[in-house]
Write a structure and sequence with these properties.
The chain has 288 residues and is α/β, with parallel strands linked by helices. The chain has ten helices and ten strands. Helices cover 39% and strands 13% of the residues. The chain is globular. The structure holds NADP nicotinamide-adenine-dinucleotide phosphate.
Length: 288
């Protein structure tokens, strides 16, 4: 598998094997970052209503089109419906707002950002609200405003409920997946149900860079810790979405054409679980 591999969604749309994440990139910096990313070769761009940078992301894509680097058809622009919008009407309005902000006539992929509103993340179930939000995505899909639809942060039961009640099956689940945090059962469930998996925070939000075992294994393959992390996700059959504002890092993160052995994959898979502190903030990796 290399960066030219494509994943084909159940509706026939192809996704590249790596994407570019934009969380925490301020709106006024997003256009130059996205332009740089496209110039370097990224074609899958990930934003969200909640990132407050859809406008800048859309501008960056438009600049790349204006300079003939790409056509709109070359780009997979992904955004996410805010996790708080759990009614059909609210979701329909939000989809239109996102289109206006990004200044595009369609998104290539749109995801429900999370099964629960963020204030209640992993607390309780919002099956009915997710069905409502999904109906709005289905409507926008049928109207040509979105070319593919999916979810993010959905667990198996959230997916099962949606799949049992929807007309169009979810095509993508974007989930937290990095060395030290690999939800293998959920990945398997998605793959068994023809749901493409995207891995967010593939570098553990940067924390993986200082992990001893990751650094040692990276040296063995003559790659950087980041490249090892991205390749790890790829060999799990998922699409990593690294975020960087640094042009050198953008280029580095595209060089993943090497193979981690099965034994080393196992070792990385079994590293102690990445630790979070009580507030859910990022904490340091446990030393291996
Ligand atoms: N669906 C969801 O709920 C959800 C949640 C979180 C994230 N996401 C998506 O996933 C994307 C990535 O996740 P993330 O932003 O949490 O974290 P990440 O990609 O795991 O890590 C980003 C950090 O790594 C650094 N970095 C990247 N490449 C590097 C390199 N080659 N060398 C050294 N440092 C490097 C970046 O710094 P520099 O900028 O300085 O390079 C940044 O500090 C997000 O941007 C977003 O699109 C989705």
């Amino acid at each position: 598998m290399n960066t030219h591999t494509h994943f084909t969604l159940r509706n026939g749309m192809n996704l590249p094997s790596i994407g570019y994440g934009t969380w925490l990139i301020p709106n006024d910096h997003a256009s130059s970052c996205v332009f740089n990313a496209i110039q370097q070769g990224y074609r899958l761009i990930d934003t969200a209503e909640a990132y407050a940078n859809e406008q800048g992301v859309g501008e960056g894509i438009q600049q790349a089109i204006n300079q003939d680097l790409v056509t709109r058809q070359d780009i997979i622009l992904t955004t996410k419906l805010a996790a708080e919008f759990k009614t059909y009407d609210r979701a329909c309005t939000a989809i239109d707002h996102s289109l206006e902000k990004a200044h595009v006539d369609h998104f290539d992929l749109m995801l429900i950002h999370a099964p629960q509103p963020w204030d209640h993340f992993r607390e309780g179930k919002y099956y009915e609200g997710n069905r409502e939000a999904w109906k709005a995505l289905e409507q926008a899909y049928n109207d040509g405003k979105i070319s593919a639809i999916g979810v993010a942060n959905f667990e198996e039961d959230d997916l099962t409920d949606l799949m049992d009640h929807c007309s169009i099956q979810p095509m993508v689940n974007q989930i937290l997946c990095h060395i030290g945090n690999t939800p293998q059962n959920l990945i398997d469930f998605c793959h068994q149900n023809s749901i493409c998996v995207e891995g967010y925070s593939p570098i553990a939000h940067g924390a993986a860079l200082s992990h001893t075992t990751i650094s040692q294994l990276a040296e063995k393959y003559h790659v950087t810790p980041t490249q090892l992390c991205l390749r790890y996700d790829m060999q799990l059959g998922i699409i990593p979405l690294p975020k960087t504002e640094n042009a050198d890092h953008m280029a580095e993160n595209l060089k993943t054409n090497f193979t981690i052995t099965d034994d080393d994959m196992k070792q990385l898979h079994n590293l102690p679980k990445y630790a979070y502190d009580v507030d859910g903030e990022w904490a340091c990796f446990q030393k291996a």
